[in-house]
Predict the 3D structure of the following.
Amino acid sequence: KLMTVEQTQQQIRGDLSRQRQYFSDGNTLDLAIRERYLSDLESALISHKDRILNALQEDLNKPAVEAFLAEYYFLLQEIRVVKKSLKKWLKPKKVASPIYFQPCSSEICIEPYGVALIVAPWNYPIQLALAPLVSAIAAGNTVVLKPSELATASEDLLVKLLASVFPPELVHVQTGGVDVSAALLGEKFDFIFFTGSTEVGKIVASKAAESLTPCVLELGGKCPCVVDSTADIKLAAGRILSGKFFNGGQTCFAPDFVAVHESVKDDLVAAMQCEMELVPWHLEMAHVINDRHYQRLSNFLVGLDDEQIVCSGEDDRSVCKMAPRLVMGINWDHCLLKEEVFGPILPIVSYSSESDLIEELRGMSDPLALYLFSESKDFCLTMQQSKRSGGLCVNDTMKQSSNLELPFGGVGESGNGRYRGEFGVRAFSYQRAVVRRGKLGAQWMDLKPPYGKLFPWLERFMR
Ligand code: NAD
């Protein structure tokens, strides 16, 4: 049934106050209970495997292999890594205390924020909703999850799946569009975890600032893929295209464009063309999420000649199926080099010198990932030092973001904060400084006047 804005706001407030009560009553503090919920979520994922793959097929025509690896199995791994080490990560860390505080013990305790809001995007609609949720629950928070309204089958499934595992006081899935997101952001949470575009990230950050709510922002941008003159060209062509066309190019850390040294440009294009003929992406590739995004992607191609485009397979706009394309013969000021592409179009530009390349890259905002194909250690080091990025991967694409031992996140306009595995649990916690003193101890440390001879004494001994 449809609700008015006021009714939605009322409902959100009610849900939030029940979660706040649940948290204040200490229901999330017991580690064994957190672990049990994570196990229950793991079992629910396993029993819903086919439904997950079907929802992803329905929303994005996601190939089963991609859905299985990047969403379903990825989440199982995330839960298992967290369960295995959670106790160790949460153990208070003892640290030294100054001699003049003795007898005294000092430790750092990892504590949950409280009620967390998670806002998720549509491109990996299950993974990007549940991976932060795993971290949040492990860290001892309650969660309001707002999935993307654009991946409707996944949104429906998340509602059912999570209701089968968690009481609503612990996890509540709030469905709805931008108006509902805005209503959520109008409420006071203890922590916000947002994944989505840089543009909406700015709205989230400013709303969070109004109530001084800490937030992690996982945003987008243009991830450069640089191929220098020493690179293994065949290997580069294969690995760049496999990363780019995974999920139909709708991965936040996919190579967004290629910058290739002019001396090997023709070789790279030829190798990519060869790869496009061999690999049947047009038969098994995710579709564009909706017609609006299809139109957005088509706009990039306006004004280009046929010779500038290498395309394999046919488009079918009625089902948002866009064939993979390379675009050549453009320069750095083309719109394909200005806006995030986020679809199966790979623009290729060339550069003539390292310094020109660095200047161009520095003119762009900082990306989630930087990819380098090169056999030269010096070149890779120079690039690492010349351009910031959330992650860096040499001689391959995407692998830096598929390892749960590594932190995942952006820098600058691609966001801030890190998650995955231990970094996720840390993201949803704060470090509390705890000191316990004994009854004895130096009396002068109970600082109060009259200070008498204390000052000259301090000056003498505290140098
Ligand atoms: P989006 O920013 O349009 O939407 C993300 C979420 O924000 C959705 O749940 C949506 O309902 C909500 N939202 C949209 N407009 C809002 C508004 N005005 N106020 C409040 N909430 C609003 O992003 P998207 O189109 O779903 O996803 C694509 C973008 O996300 C790309 O830029 C991509 O690079 C980025 N992304 C980043 C990561 C990452 O981990 N860094 C992962 C996936 C996607």
About this structure: The chain has 15 helices and 16 strands. The pocket of nicotinamide-adenine-dinucleotide is lined by residues 119-123, 128, 146, 148-149, 178, 181-182, 185, 195-197, 200, 203, 218-220, 252, 340, 342, 368, 410, 415 (CB under 6 Å). The chain has a mean pLDDT of 96.
